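Milestone M4 deliverable, item 7.
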Amino acid sequence: MQSLNRFLYGPTPEEKVKAWQNKLRHETRMLDREMRQLDLATTKVRASVRQLAQKGDVKSARILAREVVRSDKQKDRLSVSKARLGSIGTQLNQQLAMMKITGSLQKSTEIMKLSNALIKLPQISQTMREMSMEMTKAGIMEEMIDDTLDMDDDEELEEEADAEVDKVLFALTNGKLGEAPAVSNVAPATQDTTLEDEETEKTMERYRQTLNGILS
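Output delivered:
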């Protein structure tokens, strides 16, 4: 009889909630993994920033410090999204408790608000869209209006990153930023220094590509 009901009416509300909880746990693990990858990549970039600053290459250090700022912003965004996933899970548990009294899943503006925010995160956007559609059919949410805004990290950085980059550089160099030798005191470039500059450029590009691969 239970199999016949499932065939005719689909999964029960309890089964639907369990499936949503599984998806939430899967996306949470995925965000945890991405945050660990960001930590590993950013640690290497921070070390490179210190080395560049010690050499007096403030320009290159600033370029990589900007990548550190981008990485930190992304990690904050992922951390907030992970917390939102957890909040949806808590709300669903409350739905199950209420269903024992009401006999059905109830509409939740909180779940709708959290889901709408999570749809804007590219890493889990597709999953959240699918879950939102399923929850709408189940009566938990109203049909959502797609007002997703594109996150323009570059524009955001241009507006406020300079001060943050200076802060990162100051912290990573123990406040020694700006103590690079004056141009007049620097010896003319030799073949060795040119090769070293080329190697620095390659290292910087490698770090930037690594971070961009994680941040994209």
